[in-house]
Amino acid sequence: MGRGTMQKNAAILKAILNKVHREGLIDTPPRFPKFKKLNHRTRWLTLEEERRLTDSASKHLVPLIMFALDTGGGLSELMRLDWRYVEMQHRRIRFTDTKNGEDRTIRLCDRALATLAALGPKDSG
Question: Is the pTM of this model over 0.85?
Answer without folding.
Answer: no
